Description:
Layout: E1 4-9, H1 14-25, E2 30-35, H2 38-46, H3 51-66, E3 71-74, H4 80-86, E4 94-96, H5 99-108, E5 111-116, H6 119-135, E6 141-146, H7 150-155, H8 159-173, E7 179-182, E8 203-204, H9 206-217
Amino acid sequence: MGKRLAYLHTVAGxxxxxxxxxxxxxxxxxxFHIVDxxxxxNTIRANQLTPQTMRRLxxxxxxxxxxxxxxxxxxxxSVGPAVEASRPFVHIPVLRVDEPMAELAIQSGKTIGVxxxxxxxxxxTAELISNVxxxxxKAVQVISKLCEGAFQAVISGDTARHDQLVSSGLQELVPxxxxxxxAQASMARVVESLPEETRRVPIFxxxxxxxxxxxxxIPTL
Length: 221
């Protein structure tokens, strides 16, 4: 029997992104998706990750294990701390989508920019980078940039406005840092359309790095 992977999403549109990456990088791995958009919606509404939402995420992780998953990847950075809190309650690895990106950023520079379209994603991503750096004994400075209005634009269907706001936010952030991480997977497509001078520092997005990590991990299970 091959290994079985569960993706846990809070945005339905990410199922296609991770299926395509899995088809490319994890051929033959049996996978399934669990989607609960209310986890992110409730986090945005409360402007924080609440104990209730953390419990609900834990129940979904347990459900994935009971469904036969050998490991779970949670693809939402806003609920990252709940992912870490869930680990003692199951017997399988539970991965944060943004951990490989954070590790690569720390290897790539000392001043790390974090760009996000949601405050609820910005804070846990910045904290993750600081925590990973501390575990590795490295001193880093994290500079956060919220692309105001971009999330509301994409939710209302105005992707052009979202991309414009993310692009201008990145152009402000890049001159101040050695490397940039994008706190949301949905921001990644903007990078290709950035002016050349804005791409003079590495700009990392989580999905491909996360699935590459899975490709390393699955054969060891």
